[in-house]
Amino acid sequence: MFVDSQRLHIAVQKSGRLADYSRGLLRDAGLKIQNGKNALTARVDNFPIDLMFVRDDDIPTFVADGVCEFGMVGLNVLEEFALDQPEARFDVVAPLGFGRCALRIAAPEAFAYSGPEVLAGERIATSYPRLLKRFLDDRGIDATVVKMTGAVELAPRLGIARFVCDLVSTGATLEANGLVPVETVMESEAVLVRTRRALNPEKQELSENLLRRIEGVLATQESKYIMLNAPEAALGQISAILPGAEAPTIIPLAGTPGHFAVHAVCKESVFWETLQKLKAAGASAILVMPIEKMMM
Length: 296
Ligand code: PRT
Ligand code: ZN
What we know:
Radius of gyration: 24 Å
Number of helices: 9
CATH topology of the largest domain: D-Maltodextrin-Binding Protein, domain 2
Strand order of the largest sheet: 2-3-1-4-11-5
Bound molecules: phosphoribosyl ATP, zinc ion
Largest sheet: 6 strands, mixed
CATH superfamily of the largest domain: Periplasmic binding protein-like II
Helix content: 25-40%
Oligomer: single chain
Shape: flat
Distance between the termini: 37 Å
Strand content: 25-35%
Order of helices and strands: EHEEHEHEEEHEHEHEEHEHEEHE
Structural class: alpha/beta
CATH architecture of the largest domain: 3-Layer(aba) Sandwich
């Protein structure tokens, strides 16, 4: 693959569960990505950045080798790679909030599972042998790890292993195969990973700009702007309920002494329950608005 050393390179999954989210996040960060879904690379029009579309399994290698300065990949893939290559030079810079799943050990429905010690002497099929081995070693359990590259959930039916250790999101796949999750090996989501290799000053500046933009997008995804009215006596309680808000703005309401408008940026999810609590505390005319852009 030809790599232009003057440009910054971001490795994203070509197709699969992370592909659309990864491109979407970069677009939201203001990168104008040229089209061409089947291409190996795409140029960004408004920055000296190229995207590389690859298998997710190759992303840690590309970033560690410095072929790509950044990558977006599941923490599960990254940690499995890191256990194999402890010298690999990369840092996780930010969790990205998509691709959430958990690597879980599952047992046949009929199995009376009482704790990890029952796994001793058993066979467990997985695509994540190092993560599983670490889990077992940490607990002093000696089991046989059977590596499979896909269709792990079929292993018990095929007689390859009694247990499986696989990624789970909804749990439907396990259930359809008569398996129940019994242990969580790790929680995972997509992360932004960055090479530890030194960058030249221009690339360094660009990469900081990119990071600030991505952080801005991530912050706005959860954040909401809340406006409400409240009597003076309720202001303390209301400020305490507002999720993730620092120092709300409090403005006197014209013509209604003792009443105030409260404006706040909430950096955590605002649920219906939150609104009910605010109302119960004395708030009225509560408005929750999305935030389009934010830079702290
Ligand atoms: O082609 P390439 O190698 O790039 O892709 P891939 O096929 O290896 O990966 P892909 O696209 O399937 O997954 C990419 C990443 O998405 C994973 O590394 C995880 O970080 C994340 N992710 C999130 C998942 C899931 N959720 C998930 N549910 N990856 C896989 N699954 C599979 C799981 O293996 C099982 O087969 O979905 C099934 C279970 O799903 P539920 O909903 O039935 O529980
Ligand atoms: Zn893969």
